[in-house]
Amino acid sequence: MRPGAARVRGQGESADAPPGVKLSLLAAMTDLWRIIMRSQAPWLKTRTAVALVLIVIGKVLGIWAPFMLGHAVNTLAQGKSASAQVGLSFAGIAVGWAFIRFLAAAAPQARDAIFTPVSQAAQRRAAAESFAHALSLSLDYHQTKRTGALGRTIDRGARSIEYLLRTLVFNLAPTVLELLLAAGALAKVYDWRFAAVAIGTVILYGAGTFMISDWRIHHRRALNAADTEAAGRSVDALLNYETVKSFGAEARSAAYYDEALADYAQAAVKANTSLVMLNVIQAAVMNAGLAVMAVLAGMSAAAGKIGPGDVTSVVLVMMQIYAPLAILGFAYREIRQSIIDMEAMVDLRRQVPAVADAPNAREMPEAQVLGADLAFDRVAFRHTARSQGLDGVSFRAPPGSTTAIVGPSGSGKTTMVRLALRLIDPQDGAVSIDGCDLRALKQSALRGAVALVPQDVALFNDTVRANIGFGRPGADDQQVWAAADAAELGDFIRALPEGMETMVGERGLKLSGGERQRVGLARALIAQPRLLILDEATSALDSRTEAAIQATLRRLRGGRTTLVIAHRLSTIADADQILVLKGGKIVERGDHAQLIDQDGEYASLWRRQTRKRV
After folding, report:
1. 309 and 441 belong to one structural domain
2. Which of 387, 391, 443, 392 is nearest to 420 (CA)?
């Protein structure tokens, strides 16, 4: 592994590492059946029943056809004195044989047409549920996952649903049925030895296929791991291309990606080589079985026990078995490989969010005033990767007030924001809003009443309108423009050639840092939150724009509770209360004037900042 590639492994490990679960065939089929039942496909039960009936019909007709042709050949061989009549009989049976073969071939096609909506609905349901579950997982998970690897896990897992349906339900199970029908027909019509040869060939073929395929499984897992690593590296570099270019690391990043591709190529060679060995052994078993069956049929015909048409039937039946045998090997490999692909997706879906709604979680209390009443009561929280965290933090932000939090980096300001949003839960104490513990509320209800403007605003690769409107689904043009104007963004948007329809690029990187912050502010304002959290929300703005937005915020936050994280103390000098954090504790509190008079941490920081401006 390259230097610096080591990372903390935690809840998100499954997105990058081999999955923590190993699925058996029974477990995989149980999950598959549940997904099908939840797929909500149109006419689900009817389509499934008709598809199964068509499978049986196709296999019965497929076994019947060779015996019909054998009967036609026997009729032709026995009719030396009445050639015209025999010719007509042969032609009629041969036409019937061709028609039956057509029906046997058409039945699987009709089955696919009927059942495809079900398989697609199941695949869609698996992908949608896995994606939704990934979004529901807690902050700790997403801080340790890799976006490309997680996306590939969901994609491969969803596609494995279709593979399992196609190979297990429509290939492997019908193959077993066809083999049983063929063996029974050979034993009844001819001799038990014919059935014994057919069954023996199948057993030998199946045993060899299963043993070698099981041996090949670790090659497939290595191939998946290499594929995931390559995808993760490429997406990491593409998402952070600005950093890559800033450090002139294009060649280095490409070399890391090439290194991952080399590992993938090496794993692919091993997987393909083992596949070639499997195919050669399968071909040897199949041709040996055909040779034994042909010799046995020839000896029986020479002894007068069967006619020449029966030799044809026996050979055709064995040829008919050949296709299922080939599919058997393919189906088993596909099933095992699909189960491997499902493992990571199942492991993802078994991850339990660290922050989840309580069984009796309720909606937000009905607001008596515009602002929320936020309170921290002896809150403690410590990250596993930090030496210190919050320790006994208590304060109250009354409705309509502005509370500012200042302090050095690592003092716990961001942790307090995450606690207020319930992205994490306190390890001790409680955070409440309007007198209700956040853990007793539905997360969706809480997030609907709280809006965050972070320091580094990430936007969707969509239009300006879509990014602003994201804060309030269904917002009309007037509301979108009002939010944009309130964030001092209206003139900028009107000057753009495409206006609100301007695409902002990946993570909004077509815009400057200040423009992204204003879009983030507009997105928060359009949500009309009861609690507005500003985490260095104006740090990327120039002085004039910052002053204009500060004036706008003073006007808009009238009656709305505001929690402000700030390094520039001039932006929070008018706050109703200022909390000074140090070492995870509130060491000072009061308004600006009171803290200056105390001549403590805040006053010292204020003097340093004002001296720099002078």
Report:
1. no
2. 443
